[in-house]
Hints:
Number of helices: 7
Order of helices and strands: HEHEHHEHHEHE
Mean pLDDT: 96
Amino acid sequence: MNFYDAMKERRSIYNISDSSPVSDEKIKEIIEESVKYTPTAFNSQSGRVILLLNDKHKRLWDITEDALRKVVPEGQFEPTEQKIESFRKGYGTILFFEDQDTVESLKEQFPLYKESFPIYSLESSGMLQYNIWTGLAINGLGASLQHYTELIEEDVKSEWNIDKSWKLLAQMPFGKKEEEAGGKEFLPLEKRIKILD
């Protein structure tokens, strides 16, 4: 598969199952290679990733559902419950973090850029998320990117004894694709790109 085909393959897939067309070792390899080779500002290597499989994967979505029940009115909860169940029935979830100790250290070392390092950190995490997501996609795994961070971060850190300096940014449930992504509309490229020569 060439680079452009890989980009096209990476789509948000919500209908996933609790099986995988590749081994856990292959999933681990996708994560490890992405973490190793995704660029970071000043080579800070601030990205952190946790792979949840089996009961730990399901436990994450139990935590998320419990947190949502506290903020979504009971009479309106059914669509939320169905959405969380669609993630829970997947094969696993990848949690993305950025180490804030690393970000703070960069601010101290390079004060001229101190306002920019949190932005650089988010940019790097976005690239890492994309790289892993694309790696999963070209290996036949469907995934989507979720952001329940504010609701679940404390409980997630407590559940798995995660370092306090790791800031949770996103959750990526994945599994075998049960259906392909639908069509996608694109704005005209001339509205999005300027070429000055």
